[in-house]
Fold:
Amino acid sequence: MFQSGIVKGCFNEMFFEDQRIRPCYDGVFAHFSALRPAALEEQSRKARRMFNRLGVTFTVYQESANLERTLPFDILPRLIPSDEWSLLEQGVRQRVRALNLFLRDIYHEQASLHEGIVPRELVVTHPDYCWAMVGTKVPFGQYVTLAGIDIIRDPGGRYLVLEDNLRVPSGISYIFENRQMMQRLFPDMCRRYRIQPILPALSFFARYLRSLAPRPTSNPTVVLLTPGKYNAAYYDHVFLSQQLGIHLVEGEDLLTLNNRVFMRTVEGLQPVDVIYRRIDDAFLDPLVFRSDSVLGVPGLISAYRAGNVALVNAPGTGVADDKAIYAYVPQMIRYYLNEEPILQNVPTYLLRDREQREHVLARLDQMVVKKTTGAGGYGMLIGPKASAAEIEDFAQAIRKDPKAYIAQPTISISQHPSLVNGCFEGRHIDLRPFVIGGERVIPGGLTRVALRKGSLVVNSSQGGGSKDTWVVPSDGQKQVEERECRIVC
Amino acid sequence: MPDRMLSCRHADSLIWLSRLIERAENNARILEVNFIRPFYGETASWEPLVAITGNIVDFRRFYDEADAASVFDFLAFSEANPNSIVACADLARENALAVRERLPNELFEVVNRLHLTLRACAHRVGEPVVYPFLDLVKRQSMIFQGLVEAILPHGEDGAFLRIGRYLERLDKTARILDVVHYHADGADEELWLRVLASVSAYEAYRRTGGGRVTSRDVTTYLVQDGDFPRSLAFCADQALRAAQRAFAGVGEIPQSVRLLEQLDRRLRYSTMEEIEAQGLHAFLQAILQENNRIGEAIQRDLFAEEASA
Structure:
């Protein structure tokens, strides 16, 4: 069942280099080895059918129509031993805390810019630097209420941060849907593991959002502002509003009066205290940002600046998840927290720097080049897989606008066995843990799988899938003991 | 309860969600009666079926002749007919998506499944599977209604769903009566049995009607009976109650509730003699118009600026 195909020079999550199984995977390996290919495929189909029926889908845009797809689900779970996890958890929390302080700083004193920790022009000329946020007091200083930090593992098994997502990170619903699906498909196996529960993090999130209400009230109104049912992440929005017990609203449901935000309800206007917005900055308020936006609420920013409503995440956080600013996060951690970074960055070349640029241009075929403002796996160059023509195109683009690009050495990210035609074969994966309020991390997070053989791109828009991610006790043996079913999530 | 405040957009979607599910079910009933039980004697007249769903003009634009195949296609699958079963299921799902976070997952699943199944089989329905197809639509609608009663909190959300359901049902029963009276000579017992069947009133009527199946008896039953859940009087009463609950938190009584009160009174207190004196067609047309006005008034109550300010 398990194709031993361990790729040299690439960390395998399930097997040691000598093909032995990593201890925490014992139970999973035993369970799946006992199933025939046809049975495995059947479970996989069952998952797809169920996701479809439940409407757990995302929308892909194609030329003529919006198509609804289920996110491909890989039935083999990824296991993270709890000692590794606690390091990861501390690492991403530390990172988000520093980024939050950085955001506070660049919109107020700008101490880090004065001291040259981060180059000033990189920040203030950034397209996402939000002038409306300069000097604006943000409720409780919380800029980044929800962050998704993309993590990869290098060939040595080291966890590295690949990217910070601080605007409107999506995918959180899949963590919970994947867990539920695993428990439906393989109840016995799930019961035998002591998997860290994930639902309590949602309750924390719900309480946290309520705690951000600027008005002293015991029963604040929290809403999730969505672009609507045709948005690719609409299911994420539905899931969160259901789980957090908050209202799902569109721009037209809200209005502002005297710098206060109200929701149009059957009973008349009701004041709104906290807006968890899932639309981009540019569409939030046509009076301040794009005037053609019909998704937002006129007057919203004014009400926000007056301190009458909390916006989550704050506008203008996009500066800090820029791929060039990313290179400075370790310095930020030292500067703001006076700590050493727990998680390392992937080495990053800033192409605005002539020396680094020449270094990169000389070996583009070994590099990954990304647009600093890009997302979703679009518009990037993967040197080792690119044709000479593509490399030449990118070289020209870089020379033309060097500060729009960064480059990183191609890292062979870790692999995990995934079900392909009834057998398990190695596929590259990453991990997106979600950090709530810089304090709480959902145990595990979203593991994304590049389902195409050899592909390094895990984005769902590029044919990626996902798998359930368990945080389990570090010593493999003890968890397999038969114990009472205590899994809450 | 401030916790579950209902936005006006959501209220509107709830009404349409249940309205469209009800419409799909009614279409399925009407088709079922006419397909499964072929007409006795002379050839069937299919056009009235199209008239009941209200868009004979659309029909004529796409089909030369009204026969079993064309009418079935039009009422069940046609993209050109906004009221075809498939179109209703699609649109119902759109509305369910818009209010999805307020619906229990099981409820959404029913709507989603109806949409997916109909989409998957729409091209493949031939003569032999007509009955299972129509049965599926009816059954999913019933599961939907059952879940609304059984697991949805009976607050505002439920009230708006009920408004949609009863306004739609009232409309269909009234249309059926009107069309049949318009097309039929009135004395055909077989025809009136068919009318009863198309609103699933056959057994219920048998128990109360005592064996007399005349135009007048059946009409009286379907207009005035207070207990039968598809009669005009019953639907108006339920719609009124639902609207009173739905708008309970609103300061002054909204226009839509006032109109519903009038409709309810009219159905409750008119005698058959009075109705016949003005002509059944005129009476039913007036009811249908009033029903439309109520629908429009609800829109105004929900979305007019002065209502929210």
Residues 154-308 of chain B form one domain. Chain B touches chain A through 30 residues (CB under 8 Å). The first helix of chain B runs from residue 8 to 36.
